[in-house]
Amino acid sequence: MSLNVLDHPLAQHLVALLRDVETEPGAFRIAADKLTSLLVWEATRDLPMVEGTVQTPLEITPAFRLAKPIAAIPILRAGLGMLESVTTLFPDVRVGYIGLERNHSTAIASSYYRKLPRVDDCVSLCLDPMLATGGSASQAISLLKEVGATQIKMVCVVAAPEGVARLTADHPDVPIFSAALDRGLNDHKYILPGLGDFGDRLYGTF
Ligand code: PRP
Ligand code: URA
Prior knowledge:
Layout: E1 3-5, H1 9-19, H2 25-43, E2 49-55, E3 60-66, E4 70-76, H3 83-89, E5 94-95, E6 97-102, E7 109-115, E8 123-127, E9 130-131, H4 135-146, E10 151-155, E11 158-159, H5 161-170, E12 176-178, E13 180-181, E14 184-185, E15 191-192, H6 198-203
Parallel strand pairs: 1-12, 4-5, 4-6, 4-8, 8-10, 9-11, 10-12, 11-13
Antiparallel strand pairs: 2-3, 6-7, 14-15
Helix pairs in contact: 1-2, 2-3
Bound molecules: 1-O-pyrophosphono-5-O-phosphono-alpha-D-ribofuranose and uracil (URA).
The site of 1-O-pyrophosphono-5-O-phosphono-alpha-D-ribofuranose has 23 residues, from strand 6, strand 9, helix 4 and helix 6.
């Protein structure tokens, strides 16, 4: 299993803010944005580089640049809360959208939208803050593979062991980057202790 849990005091501080039931949508959005920057920093640590040269004002020196384009694919709607930090870090990122919504009684996600860029030549970052049963993430990654993605990383904020197990079984080639690994799921397939419904907290839809 390739699960990477962020180990950094600032990440834990931001997770505490997101978990806090008193955190209002404005502060929630800011914390989610900052935390995603840390997660993406970690998830892109092994990006392939190409060696070349650069002319400084004084001389020519060896220089390394990113070898592959980056694609970011937020799963709507909660994944949108993770997008801006990626576009800030990687301004030329290609962005695709996958719309998935869990059925309230079955917790099975159904697809309602898809618009994807070319991904076969990219490192793809699949963005979804909550890895609960893992059904949404697994479905999204299958879609990305169908359109040619080969190097995919899953970036989430809170993961449940059930979601990690499902994703590892369905897509063993996809490493998971999370800010927290929680205890498990409740009867409604919400993560415990979790932070509630990420989309609702981000957008104030209660
Ligand atoms: C939430 C969350 C994930 C999914 C995780 O989305 O943003 O996409 O649930 O659950 P899973 O791992 O069990 O599939 P939701 O369906 O509530 O839609 P929303 O983002 O529009 O709120
Ligand atoms: N989706 C959420 O937003 N929160 C959970 O705990 C599980 C799924």
